[in-house]
Amino acid sequence: MSMLKSMTGMATLRDQWREPNQGADQENTPGWSWVWDIRSVNARGLDIRLRLPDWIEGLEGPVRAAITKGTARGNVTLGLRLSRDAAQASEKLDLEALRRTLGHLAAVEVEAKSAGVALVPATAVDLLTLRGVLISHTGEDDPAPLARAILASLPELLTSFEAMRQSEGAALAVVLGAQLDRIEALTGQAAKLAEARKDQMGAKLQENMARILENSEGMDPARVAQELALIAVKTDVTEENDRLGAHVTAARDLLAQDGPVGRKLDFLSQEFNREANTLCSKSQASALTSVGLDLKATIDQMREQVQNVE
């Protein structure tokens, strides 16, 4: 059974801190909750973009490794949003930062006074809003337990993400299978039209040869026959039909394989298109040209779908 995967998918997971309270120190048991969000779109290779809290060390490496392990191609964006329970959150004054800030303010006031610039006095509220003076206590002093809890929830997210990609891949396999059936049917139709065209082309070539010999004195009949035979070879589409049939078989084999096959299918779709173009250029008959154009349209549709296959 095919395990075709799509490069497009998304998944979201909400989780929270589950470790039990350790003793009476409430600050050592953060009341955290978080939301994972992962999305991917098609890409030529694997491009992973992470949006993680920069104050929690040890997240990026394991997260990137986990994504790489299960994903071969795609532009993957993963984000992590953290929130703190209001009852658990607390703030404290950084006295050292406050002293530095007051010193800077004093220096500014001296310079402003010497320049004749009057400043509005700073209030206590103004000072508390300055960066670094008032610190929100969020467990940054020891984020390792929180990091472990967050990483423990990552496999569930990636499992959901993988399931969605496989579901979309299964739908893609059905669509691609139907398009290959259509290409196979059109190839068979082209082969029948080409076979029926042989007698007509043979009669037409003989007629052309007789007309040329009648109107060309001294022309070597053997040379004329050789040129006409060369034209017949150039308009023969047997090889194109054979290669189209072989490509259909190869594409079906790829769809039945496990693992990433998107690049191979993309290359194969280019080969499909090349054969259809050649068939149209050789057709020399409106019915066969019509079939060739239908082939090109179906191949273009297939190639669009292939862009989403991992």
What are the SSEs and their pairings?
Blueprint: E1 9-16, E2 32-41, E3 46-51, H1 60-70, E4 74-84, E5 90-93, H2 95-114, H3 124-128, E6 134-137, H4 144-214, H5 221-234, H6 238-255, H7 262-282, H8 286-306
Parallel strand pairs: 3-4
Antiparallel strand pairs: 1-2, 2-4, 5-6
Walk me through what this model shows.
This protein is elongated. It is built from 8 helices and 6 strands. The chain starts with 8 loop residues before the first strand and ends with a helix. With 310 residues, the protein is an alpha+beta fold. The protein has 3 domains: 99 residues; 48 residues, no CATH class; 140 residues. Helix 1 packs parallel to helix 4 and helix 6 packs antiparallel against helix 7. About 4% of the residues have low confidence. The relative contact order is 0.14. The strands form 2 sheets. Strands 1-2-4-3 form a 4-stranded mixed β-sheet, covered by helices on one side. A two-stranded antiparallel ribbon has the order 5-6. Strand 3, helix 1 and strand 4 form a beta-alpha-beta unit.
SSE order, as H and E? EEEHEEHHEHHHHH
**In which order are the strands of the major sheet placed?**
1-2-4-3
Radius of gyration from CA coordinates: 36 Å
Helix/strand structural class: alpha+beta
The major β-sheet equals: 4 strands, mixed
Mean pLDDT: 83
Instruction: Report strand %.
Output: 5-15%
Helix content: 55-70%
Q: What is the β-strand count? A: 6
How would the global form be characterised? elongated
- Residue windows where pLDDT falls under 50 for at least 5 positions: 19-29
Distance between the termini: 17 Å
Please tally the helical runs, counting DSSP H or I stretches of 4 or more residues. 8
Number of discrete domains: 3
